[in-house]
Design a protein that fits this description.
Largest sheet: none
Distance between the termini: 41 Å
Shape: globular
Strand content: under 5%
Radius of gyration: 18 Å
Number of strands: 0
Order of helices and strands: HHHHHH
Helix content: over 70%
Length: 138
């Protein structure tokens, strides 16, 4: 049941990314270009997402366990540190330059888009480079 739920929710998420325009790199770059030809339509997508998920998160927070799992899976780190700030900045720069982030990249890959494959290879290479650097430093 867990795998079927994950598949169905993943398909719903991917469909939402396509329908909203979040999987369109040109639309994302237009939204992030505040000083050029700004396309504000994705702000409505984000507003709708917040309006929908905020009450759901509040409802879920009151539960002792999730609906489809035995326990909650949450990150262990609770604070904001230098690594989080730099990682967030690099994520944002990559998103702005490519107009793609990991979720839409998987959707675009499913549609056979070569730019998504290039993005995912670069992302995995960056993650591997970070791991390698961390092991060398520590």
């Amino acid at each position: 049941m867990m795998r079927i739920s994950a598949l169905l929710l993943g398909l719903l998420f991917g469909f939402g990314l396509l329908l909203s325009g979040m999987a369109n790199p040109a639309k994302v770059q237009g939204f992030l270009d505040w000083f050029g030809d700004w396309d504000a339509t994705l702000a409505f997508v984000m507003g709708g997402a917040v309006a929908l998920t905020l009450p759901l998160f509040q409802w879920a927070a009151k539960r002792s366990r999730p609906l489809l799992a035995g326990r909650w899976y949450a990150p262990a780190a609770q604070g904001i540190d230098r690594r989080l700030i730099w990682g967030s900045a690099l994520f944002g720069i990559g998103w702005g330059l490519a107009g793609i982030c990991p979720g839409p990249a998987l959707v675009l890959l499913g549609l056979g888009r070569l730019d998504a494959l290039v993005f995912l290879v670069a992302m995995v290479a960056g993650m591997g480079g970070w791991q390698y650097w961390q092991h060398r430093v520590n």
